[in-house]
Design a protein that fits this description.
about 280 residues, about 0% strand, mainly alpha, 11 helices, globular
Length: about 280
Amino acid sequence: MTPAVVGLVLCAAILHASWNAFLRGSVDRLLTITVMCFAWTVIAAPFALFLPLPAVASWPYICLSCVLQVSYNILLVIAYRHAELGQVYPIIRGCAPLLVTLGAALFAHERLGLQSLAGIILVSLGVMSLSLGKRGTKIVAIVAAFATAFVIACYTVVDGIGARLAGSPYTYSAWLFLLNSIFMQFTFLAIRRRIEITLRFPDFLKALAAGAVQILTYGIVIWAFTLNPIGPISALRETSVVFAAVIGRLFLGESFTVHRLAACVAISSGAICLGYRS
């Protein structure tokens, strides 16, 4: 993995933690995600219109990913409704790299070296350990967190394969976000029956900004999938929990203990294994 890829994926990790922290602290999380979709539409539509269409072979992956990512959004809302960021975010992001690595081995025929596998394991165990010792976490939040991790692994492998088949990660990302936005708005209508979004919604402008951040972060990851194995990129992305822990402490009033510090060291060590070029 080149230093440029490592640096960009780590930047994506910081931005990913930021929009998750914002979602956790928002007034109406389902509405917030739906407003974020409007930003996806505005940004993705010009690219979708002016770039060449993705290769035909990639379209089933785009559609399947849209369904999976809408499921991810709903599960994320449920998880954050019943627990704080530091309780469920580590479970969600820690399980995903291991599942992604397994999925990539089965469906993308990827084989990793011992150094990469060690990095993935360190990141995953370090991330998941951040949720240990948490009291008062509801069962529904834990179940939603594990279900979310499974869905993340599914759409990550789907997008890793789909982006390679599309011919360009940029056109794949553009159509993915454009269709994902449409899917999410129909989902909101099915749940709430109508959409009433005004500037009086307290998180409106922040949600638009978060949507722009999200499309940038996952666009970087999809681009990285076309250059590197899916598993290590997924694990490197999950270093976002380190930044989420800091954000949770500074802005959401969550605790930052010696245990969390040790977990962050394990995650950072895993990231070094993934990024080190021998």
